[in-house]
Amino acid sequence: MKNPAHHLLASLACALLLPTAPALAQPATSAGACPATLQHTFLRLQDEKPQSLCQYSGKVLLVVNTASFCGFTGQYKELEALHAKYQGKGLVVLGFPSNDFSQETGSNQEIAEFCESTFGVRFPMFAKSSVKGPQANAFFQQLAQQTGQAPRWNFHKYLLARDGTVVDQYSSLTSPDSRTLVRAIEQQLALPAPGARP
Hints:
By secondary structure, the protein is an alpha+beta fold. The protein is built from five helices and six strands. 39% of the residues lie in helices and 15% in strands. The strands form two sheets. It has a four-stranded mixed β-sheet with strand order 4-3-5-6, with helices on both faces. Strands 1-2 form a two-stranded antiparallel sheet. It starts with a helix and ends in a 9-residue tail after the last helix.
């Protein structure tokens, strides 16, 4: 009687332990390293390949909804200059084209070609999506919820700290090279990355 009982208990223990150990091992590390704000995947503008925002964990992010035929479209040049100047210190500009304001009618390929040929854009950009209202992509829904402000027009900006928290939001009228925005970016870049040793 003892042997079958021991065998049954051992089998149950194995059945309970084996499935859970591998399942817990993988997501725990990736979820722990990536802030909840960045746990989204979007298609890259140029080739529509899936890109996880988690790759930008530990970076200071300037998230911008963009459009090709807007009075603020010239801000692409300033955004690229900002990205180039501070990239080495940990800043990444993320562009999200949107036709929510009827000024981005082209295909993803057309948008990519326009941005590169007209403004020399090199910062990461993602496939066209909605950025306001109930149809907004999940990332912009989060940003609007955390700041209380969805984009009112193209080139609205959200500044995120290295730990993924939203520091502030800026209207289209705030140019990328404005003192207010540059100062806020520099302050965030001066802070150590989460988990970094002093």
